[in-house]
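My main concern about presentation is that the manuscript never shows what a single data entry looks like. The format is easy to grasp once an entry is in front of the reader. For illustration, here is how one protein appears when written out as sequence plus structure tokens:
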Amino acid sequence: MMKLLSSLFGVLLLLPITCSLAQTPAMTLWYDKPATVWSEALPLGNGYMGAMVFGDPAKEHLQLNEGTLYSGDPTGTFKAINVRKDFRQVSELLAAKKYQDAQAIIAKEWLGRNHQLYQPMGDCWIELDHKNGVISNYKRQLDLATATATTQYKVGATTYTRTYFASYPDHVIVVKLSASGPGKINGTVHFTTPHQPTARYVAQGNTLTMRAKLPGFALRRTFEQVEKLGDQYKYPELYDKSGQRKSGVDNMLYNQQINGLGMAFETRVKAINTGGRISSSNGKVTIQDASEVVFVLSAATSFNGFDKSPATQGLDPKPLLDQRFNAIVKKPYAELYRTHLTDYKRLFDRVDLQLAAETDQSTLPTDQRVMLFANGKDPSFPALYFQYGRYLMIAGSRPGGQPLNLQGIWNDQMTPPWNGGYTININAQMNYWPAELTNLSECQEPFFKAIQELAVNGRETARNMYGNDGWVAHHNMDIWRHAEPIDNCNCAFWPMAAGWLTSHFWENYLFNGDKAFLKKDVFPLLKGAVQFYQGWLIKNEQGYLVTPVGHSPEQNFLYDGKKQGTFSPGPTMDMAIIRESFSRYLEASTLLGVDDTFTAGVKQNLAQLLPYQIGKYGQLQEWQDDFEDADVQHRHFSHLYAMHPSNQINMRSTPELAAAAKRVMERRGDGATGWSMGWKVNVWARLHDGDHALKLITNLFKLIRTDSTHMSGGGTYPNLFCAHPPFQIDGNFGATAGIAEMLVQSHAGEIHLLPALPEAWHTGRVKGLKARGGFTVDMEWKAGKLTKAVVHSALGGVCRIRTNENLSVQPVSSAANGEVNPLFSFIDAGKPIIKDQTKLGPMPAVNGFTIDLNTEKGKVYEIR
């Protein structure tokens, strides 16, 4: 294959590859040509900054992000929403089954305005002069075991190597260029940014600095959309009081266009050469005849918290960067790399996974492995995808940074899909499904902090919008943690997110058993969510408590023939989140010794919640009424929240409901957008059908070559990013969690080993998966059967193990008596309402053997 590469320095020919870098298929993404589009580039991250590395020999491109870079300001929201004003009318319309009439009022009166946008920071360009030489032996790769990217190629007798890594401890991204042979490194480095109205570039000595400011206001919608909705009054930045568009306004307003608002940032790169010379001029740093150059890059912003204006109350980025560079001024490259590696491997090396044996197909470039996966000749590939998900978690979410948004921390667009924000009716939560399971608990810290910040605004929203106690959150938020619903989308009015978000705190407690965390962090948030739900519930005609106005994200129902409705009382997902929140609040109250009138009221209301219902097709009913689906194969199946990620429905204690959940999955089908297929992997794993879970993984591994949104179904980009399409990172994390769920489950009061092992993974091993109760599990299996497992007990207490084969344990003196460790709690879903017994499918059975281990803290138990 011949590839033409152009640069300012001339033309280079890319000749066929002869691999020279070390290759480990289970841990390496690799390619035989540079990235030509963003979705082929390789991601780096240090929890604060992200970089997409393209690997062009002549013109290296690092597209850069910083996690706090959002447009706007904390004051930029619309709070004048009053549900109480129209509540009676909406309730009466819903009771009269005039769903579209109710929906029209909700859309007009109960929605806010669009949130602000996650912004790209800029680009670093390293342009090299290879004297029109011919490029051969090209290869680029990302080694997940070390979080190190490499690009290598030859020009004549010289081998050029680039090594890239992103260090969390030192808060830098490092790129080393080296030349081995007679050739030298000659070229320039410079920055660009899409924020040109405010950009300034300064080159001095061996240091290059880019300073700019983001829009103080950005609008994802078009003006025509805003005006069609009649929402001009929600955007005083753009419209006068009469609703007329102000002169000179645009979708992006910078600096003085918006009263000086906007977040400032500074990006700095320092070049350190071995041999040759470095000089600077005209916004560029020039390297001449060096044998090695190390670029150290960092960035800082004026962000000073979710509730402070970055323009008037912001930090100064310059002294932050001065301090950062002064701290590493005496650190050579080897020490920077060693610091990075020690920090990264402390997290990454906790889990090791091997699924089946590698084959000849496993040695192909990664994009070809994706393209060919469906042929069944590369069964080990999901292990690479699993570890890639863990890599993205470590790279994108570390204490002190921001949580992973819909694009993680990687985005090159001024108007990214869905604002580059946090959709909290599943997507932001899905990003963190693997955190506990795959032994990366501390990576949730930014998410936890964001939820606590959201709750601050959410209390104000609950009081002003609903007149309720507690806190509320709807289906979206941005860095400013606005809790009101956004505009334009009926799915935006969904006041249920608080319970789901708080469940991540509860799961952290279940996995780690920190009672101080339960008291200080979990309980206040959980009580606030429950307080809001207590004030939101009403009684239906049968006397059950239901939500008065609900939505099943993001599905519609049919009524009166072919009419579509969005809102109705008591959708199943609403009830599942409330049942979970109430049950966990009562359990936390017991653990913390809380017994008061509020707790008694929660207990009383829990018993009166609308039970789960099994509908006319034998399916778990999605709404209070057994409506028909507007789209039978819709990407969302929100009513299965009770099965996953919650633990109210499981194969052993609620077989009727598990069978009804399976019927939902059969009706939804096996196609979907990328992230939805990641979710389906988890549900099929919970249904103990490993082969079907693997089928969804196979469907996810459909190679998508571009970022086009005009495609049927989702898949995977060449760099293994999930394609909705376009790119949406939650599919990566959903599938990673699903693979873990196929191997170990602990949501149903026991640790179930190999609950959903597909036939293709007949032989393998795993080390370091986490289970609730403070347990860590290592396993080996052969011919589809467990041969050995080791359970590490961090907390002590009773541990119930389930396997598919008979088992023995060493060391253990006798089988334990008494209750299972209370950290293994699961929610009693109660008896469902079954409309037609004849529609029920076969009840699933959970076979196998169990044993209770009375473990001691710090001890290890081997199971054979």
Q: What stands out?
A: Residues 1-20, 812-819 have pLDDT under 50 and may be disordered. The two ends are 52 Å apart (CA to CA). The longest helix spans residues 445-466. The first strand starts at residue 3 and ends at 7.
